């Protein structure tokens, strides 16, 4: 197993090739796991995330771009400017595979360039280019200009990763974009690239990725692909995209509405995947090598929300920018999604931040903000009227946030800091600074534990408890019933998903598979014939712990909780009416710590020993 | 008479004070005249307007900020990136006076800074400040941040000149802004400041401006102020603002509509000054020391075009962004005006450029563009649908042009270059590269001569022939009748207005005054007791010739003509139906050259001798 890492020193515009030792790969696999390990080793504690000492790891895993199903993804890791702890995010499209075809399994962005720069890697050949003419540009136009420069007009050949103006202007809710419409959105790592003046990375090449045991790889791949392609959730995702969840989650009363005030949205159907398919869908689409094809290609032909043929919107984007702000117009959401992608935002964080602003605006008008703060808010708004449901104001806001004009200068800092600035820290809904995604834990109780203990902050992708609490995969639980078995399931998902993100394959596989399905594949790919299922799951646990160690080292060990509104205010509507998240979290958290071998959220030394993390025990002592 | 010039060398962040010799002042007065002289002496021929060798002269005149009426203005001069010849523009508000109060009568911006910079001048003390945090920001927010930094929150104290993102991103239609909503808009000089990385200039101070003969100055001032304040046009301007012209010019069939296709607009009333006053006006307002108060303060409370209390819109902005694009919604125009100001655009050039784009889009859909060009246009548009009358598309476009995204990257170059790029050079309506203002010369025939012979390109402010052809000041002519007397009037206005722009006072004085009214004032201010009315008018002629010499030196002497559409296509509607501008221009131009002592647009050596411009005869030889 070979893993070629390319270090790009932006301070010197120099590239250095490096091979990751196989012993490290065996312990951390690739992608998210390898990124967490390297970040903990290489990023000094307590640095400003915008200092040149921060690094961004753009990593594939051993399965990326191979004949393995759903392997068109890559993972990004670095210290997050939004949360102050380890940030990471994952994205699909074509970029991951093309990075490997270009000759490298990972790229590390280091240092800081004096002037804007972009880099091309073509069949192992690395070139630094001045990016002055790309700086300030949207993602779509940036890709156009780079493809022109690289004489590679076809979007089927090569791939581009870039940041938009949001990242350039150090917005803490900026997303790293690739293939125009795909986002490694969470934790604001695009702003770290912005701080390094790194605009884009073009990759192209013809390197072959050969498994050690081709025949076994083919067989294993076939076996798993059948599981996935025949699963009912895969089918639903292909048909209606991720937005198939709108009606499902809404019917469970867990569809956060009006900045997490309600659990149902009266206009849910009008922003659902079904409605999208009926009115605006051009086709479905998949990432590299995908059988599910959950991505949407949509357009709006006419009117104020005209949008060209483009990808999206996903469930999370529709929810965050829609129900959570009371915008029930799907055309407006398609347009907003296009703009958010083009200017380079994490749509979950953006939607939450705008919902926070709308909430603050309402409170200011009611006289519930300190007088001076209300006055400042009104004045900073200029031509924006952030009333609930005002799509036109939101569209204008996207520009103002991207370029940090007026109120946008504050909103660019994310929901938490926006709320704090106006002395209403309880208004923004976040965990550890990261805005929460589209599931109210008061209505899906395992999500309370999943959110609170996520290592990157408010996130549904560390443990997607919706899978068993709502969708019945692998089996159905009652989302409102407290059940100790769910703690085990959350922990299992956290560990299993750590493996998934390190291989790197798509998490949508996990409705149909468990960790045992990957053992044969990884053996065949790497030649690690003695790899067992238990070792693989332990590797996941190791990764989950090493991420936590990064937070502990930063002094962030004790924040496994939820926002006050979710903990204390009962849901006023829907099937989960009257529920709070406190009851769930109180029931689950102690057992979770026990299972993990953590004390108050901090791994015990013996836990680290058990996981082979002895070298990091110093952090918890 | 003292004139203190401050040279700001941005390359070294150094300031150097200099006194302009009185002999030069007597020949060029100040403002526009002094700027033209200095530019011709100091800016080398044939340089790229974005090279560090270009200079921007920000100048007041002897009457600026004094007790003289309407003296709240300043003038800017430099080599224009839009036209390639001498560019200049004039703006009101408070900046001119405050610059003088701060201790200087003019500032020259020279060289080029490595990093964004802004400068403050407080009672003669000059300070350079890094402007990294202001770069990319809109004008309104920039002023807010600077006032915070300078601890001068009240907008009645001190003043700020700045550029918006349009200027930073070298848009050739960018405006230099001051006092948030006032623009030295024409000829794109903001982009020159952008190329020098100069963001803003804050001025404040308490220098007294004393006339040599105070008593005489007071008397002269009183005499002229009575003339102005009692004039009916002054009254109308105070009541309805410049947009009082909408209905007047429309009724003459000279209100350019749909990119100069028609001469009347069916929705003219709905975008008129009268309608504005009825629906959206908060108050009227004036520049420093003004009795006319033609400026508007307006707002839109609710809806997609919400706009906070802010200044404007003016007649030209309403026309260019409205009738010329078929947008007949005044709320949308108020919002567009706000955005155009905030992002730093010349609204005349912006409106014409967007009208050009709409025209090209229509032609592309009809198959009248080369196929490859049409394809490129459609692809570059992204989410913009530039259909006639589409205000939402225009709003989105303002952002895209300011930051040069997609089609905005081309539109930022102005109408002429946009039309040429798509191989339709006849679509943009301009003279010498400068987009034309709101009067169709087919319906107001003296404007044909005024536009064609304007030294800065398509402009109504070198000779405002509308004054006599339409408004009857000083006396009424038939706008459709060819009358050789009008050639003399145009020439007179060109010379007289050169004086006005050099004094510097407001051109709205000229409805009620002529050049003789300023002799006593200037005598009293400067102590030039032997100054005569003839000398003053000759000075105006000298200035008009020296501007022309700049163009001749650049090789642009022979472009005294009009766009093909105006020359050849008869107006299809209104009172001027059937007229073309060719008939007028053919009748007027030869006589004009004769009066001026020019040959084919180039001053004859003997003319330069007569004007005391011997040192520049080398240019025409």
Instruction: Identify low-pLDDT runs of chain A.
Output: none
Count of individual domains of chain A: 3
Task: Please tally the β strands of chain A and state the result.
Answer: 19
Please give the CATH class of the largest domain in chain A. Alpha Beta
Question: Which protein chains make the most extensive interface, counting residues with beta carbons within 8 Å of the other chain's beta carbons?
Answer: A-B, 33 and 33 residues
What do the pLDDT scores of chain A average to?
97
| Multimeric organization | homodimer
Please estimate the helix content of chain A.
40-55%
- Please identify the structural class of chain A as seen in this structure: alpha+beta
Strand portion of chain A, in percent? 5-15%
> What strand order characterises the main sheet of chain A?
2-1-6-3-4-5
Label the overall shape of chain A.
globular
Query: How many angstroms does the end-to-end distance of chain A come to?
Result: 35 Å
């Amino acid at each position: 197993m070979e893993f070629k890492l390319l270090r790009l020193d932006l301070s010197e515009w120099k590239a250095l090739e490096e091979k990751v030792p196989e012993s490290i790969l065996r312990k951390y696999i690739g992608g998210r796991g390898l990124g967490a390990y390297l970040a903990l080793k290489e990023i000094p504690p307590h640095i400003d995330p915008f200092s040149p000492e921060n690094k961004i790891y753009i990593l594939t895993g051993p399965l990326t771009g191979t004949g393995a199903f759903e392997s068109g993804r890559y993972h990004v890791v670095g210290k997050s400017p939004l949360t102050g702890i380890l940030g990471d995010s994952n994205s699909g499209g074509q970029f991951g595979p093309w990075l490997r075809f270009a000759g490298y399994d990972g790229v590390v962005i280091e240092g800081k360039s004096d002037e804007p720069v972009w880099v091309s890697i073509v069949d192992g050949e690395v070139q630094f280019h001045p990016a002055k003419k790309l700086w300030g540009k949207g993602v779509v136009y940036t890709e156009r200009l780079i493809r022109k420069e690289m004489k590679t007009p076809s979007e089927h050949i090569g791939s581009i990763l870039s940041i938009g103006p949001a990242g350039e202007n150090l917005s803490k809710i900026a997303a790293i974009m690739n293939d125009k419409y795909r986002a490694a959105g969470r934790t604001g790592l695009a702003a770290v690239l912005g701080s390094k003046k790194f605009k884009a990375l073009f990759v192209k090449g013809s390197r072959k990725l050969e498994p050690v045991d081709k025949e076994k790889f083919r067989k294993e791949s076939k076996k798993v692909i059948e599981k996935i392609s025949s699963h009912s959730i895969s089918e639903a995702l292909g048909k209606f995209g991720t937005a198939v969840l709108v009606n499902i989650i809404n019917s469970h009363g867990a569809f956060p509405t009006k900045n997490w005030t309600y659990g149902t949205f009266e206009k849910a159907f009008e922003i659902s995947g079904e409605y999208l398919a009926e009115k605006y869908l051009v086709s479905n689409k998949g990432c590299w090598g995908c059988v599910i094809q959950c991505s949407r290609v949509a357009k709006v032909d006419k009117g104020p929300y005209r949008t060209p043929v483009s990808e999206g919107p996903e469930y999370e984007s529709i929810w965050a920018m829609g129900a959570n702000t009371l915008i029930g117009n799907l055309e407006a959401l398609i347009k907003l999604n296009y703009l958010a992608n083009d200017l380079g935002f994490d749509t979950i964080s953006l939607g939450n931040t705008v919902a926070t602003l709308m909430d603050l605006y309402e409170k200011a008008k009611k006289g519930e903000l300190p007088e001076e703060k209300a006055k400042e808010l009104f004045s900073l708004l200029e031509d924006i009227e952030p009333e609930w449901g005002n799509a036109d104001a939101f569209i204008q806001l996207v520009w103002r946030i991207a370029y940090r004009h007026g109120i946008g200068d504050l909103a660019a800092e994310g929901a938490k800091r926006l709320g704090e600035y106006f002395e209403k820290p309880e208004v923004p809904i976040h965990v550890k600074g990261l805005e929460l995604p589209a599931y109210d834990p008061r209505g899906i109780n395992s999500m309370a534990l999943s959110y609170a203990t996520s290592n990157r902050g408010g996130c549904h992708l560390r443990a997607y408890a919706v899978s068993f609490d709502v969708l019945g995969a692998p089996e159905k639980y009652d989302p409102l019933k407290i059940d100790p078995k769910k703690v085990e399931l959350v922990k299992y998902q956290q560990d299993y998903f750590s493996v998934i993100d390190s291989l790197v394959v798509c998490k949508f596989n996990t409705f149909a598979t468990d960790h045992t399905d990957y053992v044969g594949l990884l053996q065949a790919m790497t030649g690690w014939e003695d790899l067992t299922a238990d070792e693989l799951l332990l590797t996941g646990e190791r990764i989950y712990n090493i991420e936590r160690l990064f937070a502990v080292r930063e002094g962030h060990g004790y924040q496994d909780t939820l926002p006050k509104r979710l903990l204390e205010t009962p849901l006023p509507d829907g099937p989960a009416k009257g529920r709070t998240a406190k009851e769930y979290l109180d029931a689950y958290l102690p057992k979770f710590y026990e299972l993990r071998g953590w004390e108050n959220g901090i791994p015990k030394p013996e836990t680290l020993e058990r996981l082979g993390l002895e070298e990091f025990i110093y952090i918890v002592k």
